[in-house]
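Lecture 7 notes: from sequence to structure.
We start with the chain below.
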Amino acid sequence: MGPLVPDLIGNELNLVVALFIGMLFGAILEQAGFSTSKKLVGLFYGYDFTVLRVFFTAGVVSMAGVIAFEHFGILDMSSVFVNPTFLWSAIVGGLIMGLGFVIGGFCPGTGLCAMGIGKIDGIIFVAGSFLGVLVFAEGYPMFEGLYKAQNWGNVQIFNTLHVPQGLFAFLLTAVALFAFWVTSIIENKVNGVKKPAVRLTPYYVSLGMIGAVIALSSFMFPEREQSLLEKVENSDFLSKHNVNLITSDELAFRIMDRQENLQIFDFRNPVEFTKFHLPNSVSFKAGSLFEKEPSKALLLKGRMNIFTASDELTARKMAAAAQELGYENIKVLKGGLDSFKNQILAFDTLSVAHSKQETDTYRFRTKARKIIPQLIEEAKKNTGVTTTKAKRVVGGC
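Predicted structure tokens for the same chain:
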């Protein structure tokens, strides 16, 4: 977890906030009975599955919340750091932690909770944890090979399984509800309870309904990026968005005038962008509109944002998506970059003007045909491709 509110308070204050949240979390754990080793290890002996229910419930509710927040644009998933998966160290570490859990009766968090209220076994457990950390740190050169083996990167399970996020969330919630039912049967059997594990009482019916709502909500909130990019492919949706256009001549004039408030967002692929791009351009991809850091440029005041692509339609789609996301002051290059190249860079100086306006246009394009290639060469040194890099943040469990 963390930083909690990176744009409002600094990292140091975020740690203070995290400390208070941690203390509150510990108090809740203690009130739930998780400072008692007997209750915690009941999971392994079959007489108390509270731990499984609490953490499974927390995981499922958090998952549903993240999906909903991402859908409504409240949470930028590109800013959420996903810890890398090192397969073998995860397996070995999980086995060691499980063994320590059974023997000591605590996990690291509940051990601290027990220590906080003065329990001797909790204090011994935490001391043992620090001893283990010390052994690992001092013996790291020996463990490094195992620690870094089978690096799968920053994986998310639904991507690894190649299933839609919503379907995975639904299945995981279904698995949680099934696990609650099975563990209740085991619990009753071990404790000698004769009542059915699940009964048609208001309590169980309410729990079932809440679980069903959480499971179905995963389909109600599709991934925002995917959903919006599918919408802009619809001609009716696109026609509802009035997008201002800028002609090739006006854009050429603003480039030649070296207007500093001009920002050109180029939605071609990076290879095409590298080969050719206009001054004041940045390579942008559709996904960048949904990411906090790259899209900051669109929020700068007093800027004229020009969306371009090889053709006008692609740029229009991106502009419509940007408008849906709340971005303003966007214009689309009329005819796209292909038209700009034909009208300006490859202007036919042998063409004949028949009116005063055509004569003025002829003079301007003849001049622009010479100057803009020079500005393009200058700009190549200063313009880059917008990329997204996951940021490592402190915290985690």
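Points to note: The CA atoms of residues 168 and 357 lie 61 Å apart. The beta strands are 85-86, 151-153, 244-246, 262-266, 281-283, 304-308, 330-333.
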